From TrEMBL:
It comes from Legionella bozemanae. This is DNA-invertase hin. GO terms for molecular function: DNA binding; DNA strand exchange activity. It holds the Pfam family Resolvase. The gene is hin_1. PROSITE patterns: RECOMBINASES_3.
């Protein structure tokens, strides 16, 4: 097969995967971490589904093309050749 690599905790010595019991503990911790990740995913999805059922939607709201800052930004870019970053800093808006 080949050389196996083990993990040995130097600080507290609680985990040593070169032994059967250490490997078991390591696998238990790994399984618990995976379980927790999936639980968080399920809860997040359930929360988003519940919010959608109440009529809520996520993300930023769309900016109207008639917005005064949007029109000013377009003019600054077209007439003055300003970069998008400079325009955003000047108008104090996000990109």
């Amino acid at each position: 097969m080949g050389t196996l690599i083990g993990f040995r905790s130097l600080c507290d010595g609680a985990i040593d995967t070169t032994t059967a019991s250490g490997e078991l503990i390591f696998n238990i911790f790994s399984s618990l971490a995976q379980f927790e990740r999936r639980l968080i995913q399920e809860r997040t999805k359930a929360g988003l589904d519940a919010a959608r059922a109440r009529g809520r939607s996520g993300g930023q709201k769309k900016v109207s093309s008639n917005n005064p800052k949007m029109l000013t930004a377009k003019r600054m870019h077209k007439n003055h050749g300003m970069s998008i970053n400079d325009i955003c800093k000047t108008l104090k808006i996000s990109r």
